[in-house]
Amino acid sequence: MPCLDSVNEAHADAVNAVAVDPTDGTVYTGSANGEIKVWKVSKETKKHKLLTTLAKHASSVNALALTMEGSILFSGGGDRVILVWERNENNNNKNNLMVGCCLKGHNGAILCIVCVDNGVVISGSSDKSVRIWKYEKGFVGGCLAVLEGHCKPVKSLVLIPGGDDSFSVFSGSLDGEIRAWKIVLLDCNSRW
Predict the structure, then answer these.
(1) Contact 135, 84 (CB under 8 A)
(2) 0.70 surpassed by pTM
(3) Nearest of 145, 148, 151 to residue 188 by alpha carbon
(4) Residues 157, 171: contact at Cβ < 8 Å?
(5) 110-115 and 120-125: which strand pairing?
């Protein structure tokens, strides 16, 4: 298969994460240098063009996830936080993102993130835990639950929707174990 496009020196350091907006093909890349870059295919050249660089993490960007409609980007870093990037509604530029919320609670680097899409995001960390977070627009967010049991860092997560307010999460760890979790959100719309 032929490669459609290659961006040489896209980042100054390793690219740790990639997310693609399913609605318009915008590509987000996260790097060990702490930057997130936003790319879009140019209609003229058919090559990916850098639109903007987001730099708010104090350490590496290890994980990225987008909501299904592509309106919110989550980034997890070596700085132990998840940044929730929202579109700046005062600007018509869809790629003008600002940090709308900072989720803190992990005691180690964030290594993976999956988005549930109803105001819930799930993260895995080098602290050996999986956390379930609730967020709302405008700097509000908090941890709903901590799932423990892995003996080494959690490197991968997969979400399987279950309908209504339930879903399953599979977590994979450097301990060689996978764990299956059944999650039921009792009141997903309440504030805490």
Answers:
(1) yes
(2) yes
(3) 145
(4) yes
(5) antiparallel
